[in-house]
Amino acid sequence: RQSQGVPEDLLFFYKNLREGGRAFRVDQQLLLYRYHAWAATHLVLEETIWRHRVAFLEERVLAQWTSFTIWNAGKQGRKLFRSLAAANQKKVRALCDVDEKKIKKGFYTYEESKERPKPRIPVQHFNQAIPPFIICVKLDLTGGGLEDNLNSLNLQEGVDYYHFN
C-alpha cells in the first residue's frame, strides 16, 4: 500500500509567506517540472491540497474579515462553503453568480450539515452581492466575462476580493 504524499512545494510556499516572504507575478517560465509515472507528486491527493489551501485561506484572509461573499453558487463555491470551519461558514453573507437558474432558486441549503435548521445561504446576482469576495471561478474560463464583471464593480484584488480557484 502506498502512503499519502505531501505537497511539499505548496507547504514551502505557505511557510515562506508566513515568515514574511512575498510573491510576485512573473509572466515567464521559472521552473520546469518533469513528468514521470513514478513522481512523488502522484501520491498527493487532490483533497490534501484542497484542505491545505482552505486552511491557508482561513488563516490569512478570512480571519481578517467579519463577513464575505463566495463568488460561484456552483460546485466549487458550494464545496468551499462546506469545507470552511463553522465560524467561517457563519461569515458567508451569500453566494453570487451570473447563472439565472441558480439565482432564481434563491438559496443554497447545506443538506449534509448537522445543524438544525440546516444552513441556507442566499444566492444572488453578482452585482447585488456585497464585497469582499472569495472568487471560485477560474480565470480565462468565461471568455473574459468574469474579468469584465469584476472590472464593472471597481474592486481591488487583495482588498475587495481574492481568487480561490
From TrEMBL:
Any GO molecular function: glycosyltransferase activity
Superkingdom: Eukaryota
Protein name listed in UniProt: UDP-GlcNAc:betaGal beta-1,3-N-acetylglucosaminyltransferase like 1
Naturally occurring in which organism (per UniProt): Latimeria chalumnae (Coelacanth)
